[in-house]
Amino acid sequence: MTTAPAPVGVPPTAADTEGTRRRVLELVASEGPVSASELAARLNLTSAAVRRHLACLEQDGTVAVHEAGRNDRRRGRPARRYVVSTTGQSELGGEDVELATQAMRFLRRTAGDEAVAAFAAERNEAVVRRYAPRLTGTDPHTRAEQLAELLAGDGYAASVRPVVGPQVPVVQLCQGHCPVQHAAEDFPELCEAEAHAFARLLGTHVQRLATLAGGAHACVTNVPLAPPTPAGRTRGTQEGSR
């Protein structure tokens, strides 16, 4: 979906500006690290207009320049690439994570680690039951794209990205936002259960490379596209929750 520019000669209203800035933030979450020119193409705006929105978001502390972009050795000045900051993740909203975190702390204190793990597993079992009938693809790549679409609809700013150069064909399932990120910072069982759920939904072993809860700019999960070996595992990969 693109945001149409305001008619010529008609200045944008405050609501228009706020709505566009919110869309920029959401796109940075789903596409980041991403440049102003890439965002402009997606939003049908000029690069200068997008840079003004990015400057405001950077000043507010909701986006930040991705450090890897500073190491670009291509000729000329490297494009600044943006990701959502921790503050921006909070602004994107989600579940009442403070209440959820308090409840999980109480659960751990009164019933122990096994109860927390069981809660995380049950939560993601519900996700599997809800998503599984809607994953109609017969191969991991198609199923990963369908899963990303479902996750995006639930506020995870998810996308599937190709990986260049691996010996085993792989795509990455990226989640630019997590509604329970702050709870997962204290309870990694949530991330581990989610990786198990992804493996079941995609029909292949997956490898969790990074998480928002662990300080990365996105949750990144490797999804191998090669068929499993006779032993039931895909060469060169392992399930990220192990």
TrEMBL record:
Keywords recorded for this protein, A-Z: Transcription, Transcription regulation
Region annotation (Disordered) ranges: 223-242
Listed GO MF terms: DNA-binding transcription factor activity
Pfam families: HTH_20
UniProt domain HTH deoR-type: residue ranges: 17-72
Transmembrane parts of this sequence: none
Annotated InterPro entries: ArsR-like_HTH, Carb_Metab_HTH_regulators, DeoR_HTH, WH-like_DNA-bd_sf, WH_DNA-bd_sf
CDD domains cross-referenced by the UniProt entry: HTH_ARSR
Protein name per the record: Putative ArsR family transcriptional regulator
Organism the protein comes from: Isoptericola jiangsuensis
